[in-house]
Amino acid sequence: MIGRIALQLAVLLIFAPLPLGVINKTKALFAGRIGPPVLQPYYDLGRLWRKGFVISRTTTWVFLAGPVVGLVVPLLAALLLPFGGLPAPISFTGDLILFVYLFGLSRFFTAAAALDTGSSFEGMGAAREVTFSCLAEPTLFFALLVLARGAKSLNLGSLFGSQLAGQWQGDASASLGLILVCLFVVLLVENSRIPFDDPNTHLELTMIHEVMVLDHSGPALGMVLYGASMKLMVMGALLVRIALPIQTGSILLDLLVFLAGLLTLAVLIGVVESTMARLQLPRVPQVLVGTTLISIFALVLVLR
Amino acid sequence: MNHATLVRFRHGFGVPLADIPQLSYDEFRESLLEEVTADARVAAYFGRPVSQNNGEEIEIFAILAHDWRGELALLRTRVSGSFPSLTLECPQLHLFERELAEQFGLHPEGHPWLKPVRFHRPWLEVDDIWGRPQGEHPIPRDMEFYRVEGEEVHEVAVGPVHAGVIEPGHFRFQCHGEEVMHLEISLGYQHRGIEQMLIGGPHPAAIYQVEAAAGDTSIGHATAYSQLLESLAYSAPPPRAQTIRAIALELERLANHVGDIGALAGDVGFLPTASFCGRLRGDYLNLTAELCGSRFGRGLVRPGGVGFDLNGALLQTFSTRLKGLERDTRGAIDLCFDSPSVLARFEGTGTVSTDDAEALGLVGVAARACGLVRDSRLHHPLGSWAGGFDTPVIELDGDVFARSNIRRREVYASLELIKQLLKRLPAGEISSPLGSLAPDSLAVALCEGWRGEVVHAAITDSEGRIGRYKIVDPSFHNWSGLAMALRGQQISDFPLCNKSFNLSYCGFDL
Fold first, then answer.
1. CA of B484 to nearest chain A CA: how many angstroms apart?
2. Among B289, B191, B246, which residue's Cα sits nearest to residue B422?
3. Which ipTM value was assigned to this complex?
4. Bridge partners of B71?
5. B32 lies in which domain range?
6. What are the pLDDT digits (tens) for B423-433?
7. B495 contacts chain A (CB < 8 A)
8. Distance from A91 to chain B by nearest Cα, in Å?
9. CATH number of the domain within which B485 lies
10. Could you say which DSSP state residue B380 is in?
């Protein structure tokens, strides 16, 4: 058990920034640039860690709680989830609710930290973030319910268990395909990627997630970025597991399949970001309502 | 009635001051409004102090452009202390009247929006009409902002320091949720007093100051300045010089339009075009540097002609380079305009109606995007444009798409124009000596810079020195257009709207 937990956390901590590097490299290739090295996100974290804090006098402890919670939550959430063929270290009935609301908790603290600065930009960002994520939540739940129906269980460990491979061959394959698309959209929204948010923009008025962390600096910003990269990996793990339900039995091989899946996902995100413009902000809720409807439809398909 | 009260002329010549009738303010007002009703627009409106036996008065000159007749109308009057504002009847005057108020301590009575423009001390020993302390430099942004009250209304202040490496300016949004109800723009951070520095000239340093009036329009401003001095000296530069100037102006247009399209693509997160256009902008700037050693064309345009010749070997370089650049540019731009997700962001965003554009006196790209045919290459041609330009680019919708599509089409048109100009480059000298300036005269020069019409006007004193110099950058008119475009828009679309205008801060601040 302890070994499982340690392995899971080690995989997460070591590999989390890698997909970001792959996304940036993909985008650079599409734009005809060489782009930063794939390991740049690691260098950035190292650089930020060596810097000092600059903290506004108007802020309180809430301001620093945001990055800390943002860093801890993905670590906890990762323990409830199988990484590819590696089974979830901790599993109990109903843990999928905990999983979803752990991210809710982190969002609460990030938004509170943003409001704590009293900046009008960060207030706007917080309002946007909570609006969009409460619209993304139903999609996630309905998608998990589709899996729960197949697994006849309510814990994440069995939801993403070995029965997935069989489901792809059976009646549920259409539903799995639909929720895969829906979860991809949720992944893009939750991780502030194009077409929903632009992680590279410098325009504070258009940002959603980035604007909430404008005031963080040094190690606190490093924690925010590290937390965000782990969130991308945890949410990516959902998709990778559904798309590649392969169980070889060997830990090393399972791990390799998982990482390969994750990097493919990163390339896919890079391709989407390179070929699409950002949506206008009012369009984002419309897309999310759309994915909710699609995931409900997927649920109906498996319930009949 | 107004035939006797105003002077009509074409630019390119000086007008002796004695020929310009002195009107009473009422006559002036009546003639001005009559002209504006008859499709004229205010190209420049400025004052200069004149001493009168009973103290100092301010002489106001209005330069009105009749685009379709290709002529300019000139009005002058004198006021002191205060005068009835014309802004309510002619909104395009609103900034010009605020400018007069700030420079000379005049009070335009009934002005609906009387606030400082550039935050400087009055030019004369008079009281500041806003009661700002004497002897101290006013602080930019120190003014009453328009406010919307209400529980659900919030105010967002942006700048003067921005997230990107751009010029300083302050923007104040009154928002209801994500919707902008009102945007107020306060500039003046880069006021350098260029107009004041040019007085007493032409100084040797003047051309450098003018080239830096708006750094991205160096060629446009330098051309207008040179045209102005040539008009006052009643001399024309050699045809070869005029054609080289025209080529340089189109190169400046290409570099900036291509850069803007890239920046627009970047703002909506469409990366390939953003990267390619960034590179291509550099290539066009480098081409300008091949000609004169400066990427921004500094040192190229000089009163009397141009400083650098476009000789045989260079001509060949230009032709081959442009061929490759055209292919790449078309590829990069079409990629962006063929993407539905990009068009979805551009279309219907930041719309300015044709009526508003006309009332505010917009010029250049912003005006042409609203269906107004305003292009000084067509209407007020000078030099190699005379009879050589007949296809202004017009769009009707007034939104971000219209403004970017104007740029796209002008990029293609400019490439074509440069090819033609290179083909019919006249032989001969590139510069001719400039004579002395005519005394007691006024001259106006219009030049279509990439952003729009650049207006320079000057009045000489009895010894032929510059007594008053007036620069109107297109940005001066168009900032109001941006404020108007944001009404009822999403605040998250502000950067996109702003980029679609891409106005100069220092061109406004002077």
1. 18
2. B246
3. 0.86
4. B66
5. 7-109
6. 888 888 888 88
7. yes
8. 40
9. 1.10.645.10
10. S
